[in-house]
Amino acid sequence: MPVLAGLLAPVVFSLGVVVAGLTWPGYRHRTQNVSDLGGAEAPFAIVQNTNFVVTGLLVIAFASRLARSDIGRRTAASPWLIGFFGATLAIQGVTPCTPGCAQGTVTDVVHGLAALTGLGSMMVAMVLVWRAMCSEAGWTTFARFSAWTGIVTLAFVVAWLATTAIAPGTFAAGVHQRLFIATVLVWLGSTALRLLPSNQEKSVADGDRVTR
Fold it and tell me: CA-to-CA distance for 165 and 156, rounded, in angstroms?
């Protein structure tokens, strides 16, 4: 079940955002933040806020499984960092903010800090997985994937912060946010997929061939 939670989390979150967007006539994914769907102006904010909480709980469940895997044992902090990311998603679900979290309310601050620290924890987790697994037989490809995903995620986050600060509500700001969300979700799902028993067995077999 915990591995399945890691596979479900990206699907649930993505579908939740689509459904929440459909409940708000005039909402524009290209220019508005995902958090706006659960904010003060959203007509059915409960949809996205529930999505945040459910996805967060799925990520936490997956992190508990990761802690017992080869990745978790070799990178003791990565499951905790991923679990922290799940907790920050849940926090965002119970702290709806004003449009763009721009008015500086208490919930704006909490929501914004949760989002940024959660993203940061995921990028650190990606780097830790790369460092720990890059020399392990059967894991080198996944380790490189983790490293590059972390770099690409950081680039999109910086681009989003820059466009939001310079020209809030523009096409680029909405796209950049969804791009870094996508990279995080893809990495999360790929990590869960890598932990499926069939893939674990293949990794062991590949490792045996390498070491012989």
Answer: 14
* Residue range 2-44, pLDDT digits in tens: 789 999 999 999 999 999 999 999 999 998 999 999 998 999 9
Count the Cβ atoms, other than its own, within 10 Å of residue 95: 23
Q: How many Cα atoms are found within 13 Å in the side-chain-facing hemisphere of 38? A: 25
Distance from the first to the final alpha carbon of the chain: 34
Q: What angle do CA 188, 194, 197 make, to 5 degrees?
A: 130
Report CA-CA distances (Å) from 74 to 53, 70, 88, 128.
29, 6, 24, 9
Q: How far apart are CA 54 and CA 58, in angstroms?
A: 6
Dihedral (CA of 53, 58, 62, 64) sign: positive
8-state DSSP, 203: H
CA nearest neighbour of 85 among 57, 52, 122, 51? 122
Residue (of 94, 132, 91) closest to 113 by Cα position: 91
The predicted-structure confidence for 144-184, as pLDDT tens digits, reads as follows 999 999 999 999 999 998 988 888 777 777 888 999 999 99
